[in-house]
Amino acid sequence: MRILLLGVSTRALADSAVRTGHDIVAVDYFGDRDQGRLVESYALRRDLHLPPTAEGLAEAARRTKTAAVVYCANLENHPEIVKTLGQGRTVLGNSPGVVRQVRDWRTLGRFCREQGIPHPAVLFPGQEREALPGVRWLSKPVRSGGGTVPGHGTSSRWTPHASCRQSWRVAPPLCHSWPTAATAESSA
User: Where are the beta strands (DSSP E) in 7-119?
Assistant: First the structure.
C-alpha cells in the first residue's frame, strides 16, 4: 500500500513507517535530502513550489495519489484540513472531530480530571490570579509547540503570547518549580 506522510517534519515518522514494508511518500517543510534514501521525500517549497503552511500540505496531499495518509504536527491544529485528507483515501489517525475535542484544552483537562489522569495545570487569559505562588509557568500559544517562561528574557509577569489571540499557561502537575539553566549547571 502507498502511504503519504504529511506534516511540518516527517523525519521520525518516516524512519518508523519504512519498517512496515509499505511504499512511503513523505511531504514536509524540509524534505531532508538524506530522508530520500529511506522514502520518497519532498519539500513543500523546494520540490513542490508550495508555501510551507498547513494549506500547502493540503495541496500537496491533493496532488499525491496514495491509498492512505498519516498526518503529524502541525496538522492537529487544522481539523478542517484533516477532513480534506480523507477524500479518496484512508486517514490513518484521528478524525477531525476527535482532533477538535483533544485540541480544546478545557475539554481535555476536564476529561483528564474525570479519569484521574495526571496533567498540567492550565490557566487561560483572565485566570492569571489563580496561578499557584512559587510555581514557574510556561506561556504558550493555544496552537503551538513553543512558549516562553516569564522571567527568562521576558517580563516576570505572565502575558499572552504575542503570536495568538488566545494563550494558555501550563505548570507541571507533580512539582513546584522547574530547574533554571543556572540550577542545572550548578548540579552538574
Answer: 23-28, 40-43, 68-71, 90-91
Q: How far apart are CA 22 and CA 43, in angstroms?
A: 21
**Helices and strands in the chain: count of H runs, count of E runs:** 7, 8
What whole-number distance in Å separates Cα of residue 26 and Cα of residue 17?
A: 10
- Contact between 160 and 139 (Cβ < 8 Å): yes
End-to-end CA distance of the chain: give it in Å, rounded.
49
For the chain, the C-alpha Rg in angstroms (whole number) is 20
Q: What sign does the dihedral 149-152-153-155 (CA atoms) show?
A: positive
Own/partner pairs, 127-132, CB within 8 angstroms, 24+ separation: 128/158, 128/169, 131/158, 131/169, 131/171, 132/171, 132/176
Domains of the chain are 2-101 (3.40.50.20), 119-178 (no CATH)
Per-residue pLDDT of the chain (188 residues; tens, 9 = 90+): 999 999 999 999 999 999 999 999 999 999 998 999 999 999 999 999 999 999 999 999 999 999 999 999 989 989 999 999 999 999 999 999 999 888 888 888 899 899 999 888 777 777 777 777 777 777 766 666 555 555 544 444 444 444 433 444 454 433 223 333 333 333 34
How far apart (Å, rounded) are the C-alpha atoms in residues 86 and 22?
Answer: 19
- The β-bridge partners of 123 are 169
Determine phi and psi for 37, rounding to 5 degrees. Answer: -75, -25
